[in-house]
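#onboarding

Welcome to the new folks! Below is a worked example of what a typical request in this channel looks like: someone posts a single protein sequence, and someone else replies with the predicted structure as tokens. Don't worry about understanding the tokens yet, we'll cover that in week two.

Example request:
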Amino acid sequence: MTLTLDVKGVKGEELRKALKPALEILRSGGLAVYPTDTVYGLGCNPLDEAALRRLLEVKGRVGKPLPLLTSSLADARRIAHFSHLALRLAEAFWPGPLTMVLPLGVELPAQVTMGLSKVGVRVPDSDVARLLAEGLGGIIVGTSANRSGEPPFKSFSDVYRWAAGRVDVVIDGGDCRYGLPSTVVEVEGDRVKLLRRGALEPSRIVEVCGYIE
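Example response:
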């Protein structure tokens, strides 16, 4: 049975309290669907290999790394190496809809990295997502809540129809602000390569770094 939590309009300490049941589920190896600023996310504890295997099965994802959301830039810096340029981009656009693929700074389960020495990381502009990450030690899996190859969901009603019975808890935060996936860039030293267009216009990235590949 899938638990549903309605947190629309809930803020501050009341939101923290409202998310406790979801965090208990996540800490015990469960899966959650939750709102972010971009689209609804499918998440679990990224250090729990059994939960990761189940998430990949639900997602139908094969061979592709899983992006991570963090509660803060400081938490992101614990798992990835930031060049000076990556820090400038983080300071300009986080919290927000920019995912950066960066050199890995710690060992993570193979289901997250798929054997690569890089990790996709983002600080979302969503209190729900950041509090869930905080409750899991600063990081949570942040892949979109949909089957691989299918469109992501931006509204609770649509995502619930997909998620009910597949995951352990679904958090209703209403419609996501952007309704588009995050923009993804890879940053290596002073090089920035656009990997996916999304909610953040590439022209805004150019304003910070001067160019984009």
